[in-house]
Write a structure and sequence with these properties.
Length: about 325
């Protein structure tokens, strides 16, 4: 019997947690008889009954207020007993065949972590649909450099070998974990059958800016830890170039005495170049492109890159707001 321990952190997201736990129960019912599911909910000081929802579904609930999400996941993993630890965020909904597909994907002995990029909600806004294209979905099974911690399973031995998530990080802790796993010789496997819907994707441009301002705060720090690869360099260089451009624009606007016009133009060119690179990345992943869609893509790219650049110098806190998708509601960053 193989035990898979689901570790789900939550804070004031009772309705999303109920949807998430329903999907976990459903996939467990469709799993092989040789697979057992254990569920651990780590409640980070909720006041909306999230802990009650967890207990209603038979989960083990740990109430640990005031901790970073990396610490919550580590505490949940320590309290679990499975040889495989499934990290799933409360605002995710996993597919019915998730556990069955995962069992097949973990047959490879050197796979330290298995998962897949999440997808946007069915009733997504145009911002969410374009944001989703940043993920670069690919069908099938392949080796990748990292996986998101909202939909990732890690072998307990591998997780303990690298001492879990780095609790000093507030964001990008999943990238850091995967980097350390790869440094120890483990492979990171993406399998598109492990489908997961993320209801916390930013629904508006404002939510996109705030979310990336927060998410990008540890981006450069984690990238510099290495290993540096051709794929990781843009994560390091684009925000730095964007910030340089923003500084040039700001200098021009305040009218510094030395060539303020040149600074403004140069800054605009730098910000425009990184945004254009992101726009091309999104556009290449679209099935078709219209003038309206191209304009929307450009706006999303600018907001994304400006937020990532500002994150290098602005320490934004974590904010969540309720948004609605048809009959569902979710908390987003």
């Amino acid at each position: 019997m193989t035990t898979v321990s689901f570790v789900i952190p939550v804070r004031n997201d009772a309705r999303a947690l109920e949807r998430c736990l329903t999907s976990v129960r459903r996939t467990a019912a469709n799993a092989s008889p040789a697979v057992e599911a254990e569920v651990i909910v780590i409640d980070n000081g909720s006041t909306d009954g999230s802990a009650t929802v967890g207990r209603k579904f038979g989960a083990t609930v740990l109430e640990l207020p005031g901790l970073k999400v990396s610490e919550l996941r580590n505490r949940g993993a320590a309290a679990s007993r499975g040889s495989l630890i499934a990290f799933v965020d409360a605002d995710h909904e996993i597919g019915e065949g998730w556990l069955r597909s995962f069992a097949e994907a973990t047959l490879e002995p050197h796979a330290g972590a298995v998962g897949a990029l999440c997808v946007c909600p069915p009733s997504a806004t145009w911002v969410q649909r374009l944001y989703d294209r940043l993920r670069g979905h690919q069908d099938g099974r392949r080796y990748v450099e990292w996986l998101g911690s909202g939909n990732m399973v890690v072998r307990r031995g591998a997780f303990e070998q690298v001492k879990g998530f780095d609790t000093r990080l507030e964001t990008c802790e999943d990238v850091d974990l995967c980097n350390r796993l790869r440094a120890r010789g483990w492979r990171i496997v993406s399998d598109s059958r492990l489908r997961s819907i993320h209801y916390g994707d930013p629904a508006t441009l404002g939510q996109l800016f705030r979310g990336e301002l927060w998410r990008g705060r540890d981006n450069v720090r984690v990238t510099l830890r290495g290993p540096l690869t051709a794929r990781s360099l843009p994560s390091l260089l684009l925000p730095v170039v964007g910030l340089t451009g923003l500084i040039g624009i700001a200098a021009g606007l305040v009218g510094l005495p030395f060539g303020w016009g040149v600074l403004s133009v140069g800054g605009l060119l730098l910000v425009g170049s990184v945004s254009a690179a992101r726009c091309v990345q999104i556009t290449m992943r679209l099935p078709s492109v219209s003038l309206r869609l191209l304009c929307q893509t450009g706006v999303v790219a600018v907001v994304y890159e400006v937020a990532r650049a500002c994150a290098l110098v602005v320490r934004s806190g974590y904010r969540r707001r309720t948004v609605r998708f048809g009959g569902w509601s979710a908390l987003v960053e």
